[in-house]
Amino acid sequence: MMQEVMKQSLKENQKAREWRESESRLHQENAAHRRQSMQLRQESTKELISILARQADSIQALVTMQAEQYRARPPCSQCPKTLVPPRHHLPTSPNIQVLIAHTRCPQHL
């Protein structure tokens, strides 16, 4: 009877050891997956920030070209002498200034 109890105890100890080893492996694998996921998320965030910065630069270049084109047009008696900021402000980058010309001139609408 004692041998059976000892055998059962050894089996239970072996199962418990295997379970602990399995849990340890799963924990290590999960930690590795979390690290990899975090690294991929950081890389994606950096790429998105880079794309947004390029878009902001492109928009700034377009605004600059539009302002230059507006300044290059011949003056018109119905056109204002200066550009004025819009009445309804939309959120913009601090580096981008949005200006609207208030005119009824068909040439400059």
Structural notes for this entry:
- With 109 residues, this protein is an all-alpha fold.
- Helices cover 65% and strands 0% of the residues.
- The protein contains 1 helix and no strands.
- It has one helix spanning 2-72.
- It starts with a helix and ends in a 37-residue tail after the last helix.
Low-confidence spans: none
Biggest sheet statistics? none
The proportion of residues in beta strands is under 5%
Q: Indicate the overall shape.
A: rod-shaped
Subunit organisation of the chains: single chain
Helix content: 55-70%
Number of helices: 1
Residue-averaged pLDDT = 81
* Gyration radius, in Å: 34 Å
Order of helices and strands: H
Distance between the termini: 102 Å
Which structural category fits the helices and strands?
mainly alpha
Question: What is the total tally of β strands?
Answer: 0
What's this entry about, in short?
This protein is an all-alpha fold and 109 residues long. 65% of the residues lie in helices and 0% in strands. It contains one helix and no strands.
Topology:
Elements (H helix, E strand, L loop, with lengths): L1 H71 L37
Characteristic terms for this protein:
1 helix, 109 residues, mainly alpha, 0% strand, 65% helix
